[in-house]
Amino acid sequence: MSSSLDLQPLNATFGAMVTGVDLAALDEDTWQAIHAAWLEYALLIFPDQNLTDSEQIALARRFGDIELIGGREIVPLSNVRSDGTLIDESHDSVKILKGNMGWHADSTYMDLQAKGAVFSARVVPPEGGGTAWADMRAAYEALPEDLRTRVQELSAYHSLYYSQSKVGHEHSENTDYIGYGFHGQDPPLRPLVKIHPETGRRSLLIGRHAYGIPGLDPDESERLLDELVEFACQPPRVHEHRWTPGEVVVWDNRCLLHRARPWDMTQPRVMMHTRIAGDRPHELAMG
Q1: pLDDT at 152
Q2: Averaged pLDDT, 93-99
Q3: Alpha helices, DSSP H only, in 209-284?
Q4: How far apart are the C-alpha atoms of 126 and 243, rounded to whole Å?
């Protein structure tokens, strides 16, 4: 079905550039082709779309329910206030941006992990500020057999408190930051190997939010998780994208990690993020 799209596979184990499509005016056949391509490639990049907020939300709803972030269906990931002034680097929201420069999957620290995301570029800095993705399906399949067997039986806790503490960010309640992911619930436990509910492929579920593998002491757990990320996020399993304003990307959060790339934060960067809610029971934490 994806053959009806103008697809150019990326130079990686995943991902494709899609042209000749107007995401704001999809007919049913084109939508079905996009969905099939998304399951196959996990990352789809659409240049020259320039979606409005409402059009981006409508596109995300094609994939499933929206995961509300602070009650909103679309949120800026940005170092710019609504009045155009830059946000100070000491602000919690910018500390989250810096934390997101580590490899991660979205909402693994919530009870229900995100299914995917629609991401669009509105303002792009002259240098840096890209986004990279890594294919955890290919990573799992490339593991040495003994390590693949070992991780199959292991799980890890996921926490935004943990991951942000690694970059020196201690969240305070006395802030105007939205605070999404900072909650009083126990950290969810997730298997290190996830089975994709639609394709059946296995992938690693790791990244910066993961810690505390039951049965291992903290140092051994951290070493193993660091080893897995280091192994997994290597070519040809990685694609790093340089943004152009107006581009839209859709990725499958169930089998990819991603990270923001650094930029000079005296330069504005405005990205709009809509998170697709996970399907129950597939993205629920263990227990």
Answers
A1: 96
A2: 91
A3: 218-232
A4: 10
Determine the Cα–Cα distance for residues 200 and 65; give it in Å rounded to an integer.
Answer: 21
Q: Which residue has the tokens 């995301």?
A: 117
User: Which residue from 160, 157, 164, 107 is spatially nearest to 279, judged by alpha carbons?
Assistant: 107
Pairing of strands 16-19, 43-46: parallel
**What's the pLDDT at 173?**
63
pLDDT in tens, 17-75: 999 999 999 999 999 999 999 999 999 999 999 999 999 999 999 999 999 999 999 99
Rg (CA), the chain: 18
What confidence score (pLDDT) does residue 172 get? 64
Determine phi and psi for 247, rounding to 5 degrees: -70, 150
264, burial (CB in 10 Å: exposed 0-12, middle 13-18, buried 19+):
exposed
Q: Give the pLDDT confidence of 228-263 residue by residue, as tens digits.
A: 999 999 999 999 999 999 999 999 999 999 999 999
Evaluate if pTM is beyond 0.70: yes
What is the rounded end-to-end Cα distance, in angstroms, of the chain? 37
| Burial 62-76, CB ≥16 within 10 A → b, else e | ebeebbebeeebbbb
**Beta strand 116-123 pairing with 270-276:** antiparallel
Beta-sheet pairing, 16-19 with 202-204: unpaired
Distance CA 23, CA 34 (A): 10
Q: How many C-beta atoms surround the C-beta of residue 47 within 10 A?
A: 15
CA–CA gap between residue 200 and residue 202 (Å, rounded): 7
CB 243 within 8 A of CB 82: no
Q: Which domains are assigned to the chain?
A: 2-174+182-276 (3.60.130.10)
